[in-house]
């Protein structure tokens, strides 16, 4: 059976985008070709940038206490078994650890937090279909900027826990985003707060009221918040927060990808790797570029309205 048989099934995609220094020369082609399919067929896309993951891992490493030799090591809580899934799947440095394990763990934790409401009880659980309903105002503008806090597991990294209010502030800081963007300086179309752990609804409301004056929301959706509260915290943490924001800042990431694509495409460099494949021709590239330009324009045009006064449409007059 195909997805078409399940009309209420939302298609979420976690897409990893290459950094500017990616060692795959054709990665801009791959990204733009894939984005056309994501724009046309996905319900929600959570873009993740390789460079953002690298920067987050470096930040976590710098937070670790140094040893006498000057090297930073990973500590394990006595309550956690050394060979448990927790320690082998988070920030613990084991001899078998592969180079990209820490980066992959960040993405895995994002998915765990995203689906926590479907797996655990909570006083205000969110159905995944509600995310598409509340965060996607227009069909093709379904790219969500994700951030999460804390970025590490306190059972593995001996760093004191952040205060609850600080956790909410961290989630909106640019160094916690899964993309190299700063949403605070762009326009929010909608935002979801998915909280786990020992947190009250009043805590969420208080922090929304505290943060809202510093965030720019589109004038037709100034109360565009979606909140969820799952009672079960991640292992080794008292609470956690995943934010999903439909924000116009994402057009900067897409513009960078388009620029790298254009540098190759205008010289027809490396196209033979694709056009020699049955079923592919130049129209796939031009159509994909056109689709990307359309998405960029949609977000950019909305961002231009930031700070502009709301235009009130005249009300219809009933003839007497």
Automatic annotation (TrEMBL):
Superkingdom of origin organism: Eukaryota
Segments forming domain Tubulin/FtsZ 2-layer sandwich: 124-259
UniProt keyword annotations, A-Z: GTP-binding, Microtubule, Nucleotide-binding
GO terms, molecular function: GTP binding
InterPro entries, per database record: Epsilon_tubulin, Tub_FtsZ_C, Tubulin, Tubulin/FtsZ_2-layer-sand-dom, Tubulin/FtsZ_GTPase_sf, Tubulin_C
Biological process per Gene Ontology, one example term: microtubule-based process
GO CC list: microtubule
Signal peptide location: none
Coiled-coil region(s): none
Pfam family, one: Tubulin_C
PANTHER family: TUBULIN (PTHR11588)
Family of this protein: Belongs to the tubulin family.
Record-given protein name: Tubulin epsilon chain
Taxonomic placement: Eukaryota, Metazoa, Spiralia, Lophotrochozoa, Mollusca
């Amino acid at each position: 059976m195909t997805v078409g048989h399940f009309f209420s099934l939302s298609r979420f995609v976690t897409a990893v985008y290459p950094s500017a220094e990616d060692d795959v020369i054709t990665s801009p082609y791959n990204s733009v070709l894939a984005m056309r399919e994501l724009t046309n067929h996905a319900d929600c896309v959570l873009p993740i940038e390789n460079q953002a993951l690298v920067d987050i891992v470096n930040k976590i490493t710098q937070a670790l206490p140094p040893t006498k030799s000057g090297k930073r090591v990973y500590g394990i809580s006595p309550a956690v078994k050394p060979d448990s899934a927790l320690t082998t799947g988070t920030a613990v440095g084991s001899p078998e650890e592969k180079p990209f394990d820490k980066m992959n763990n960040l993405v895995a934790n994002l998915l765990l937090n995203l689906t926590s409401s479907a797996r655990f009880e909570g006083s205000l659980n969110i159905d995944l279909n509600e995310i598409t309903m509340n965060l996607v105002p227009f069909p093709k503008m379904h790219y969500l900027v994700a951030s999460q806090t804390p970025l590490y597991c306190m059972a593995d990294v001996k760093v004191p826990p952040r205060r609850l209010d600080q956790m909410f502030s961290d989630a909106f800081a640019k160094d916690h985003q899964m993309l190299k963007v700063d949403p605070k300086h762009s326009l929010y179309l909608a935002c979801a707060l998915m909280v786990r752990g020992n947190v009250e609804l009043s805590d969420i409301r208080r922090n929304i009221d505290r943060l809202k004056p510093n965030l720019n929301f589109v004038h037709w959706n100034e109360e565009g918040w979606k909140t969820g509260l799952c009672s079960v915290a991640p292992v080794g943490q008292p609470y956690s927060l995943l934010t999903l924001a439909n924000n116009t800042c994402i057009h900067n990431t897409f513009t960078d990808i388009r620029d790298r694509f254009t540098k190759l495409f205008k010289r027809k460099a490396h196209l033979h790797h694709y056009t020699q494949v049955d079923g592919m021709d130049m129209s796939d590239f031009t159509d994909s570029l056109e689709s990307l330009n359309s998405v960029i324009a949609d977000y950019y045009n909305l961002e231009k309205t930031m700070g502009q006064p709301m235009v009130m449409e005249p009300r219809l007059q009933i003839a007497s």
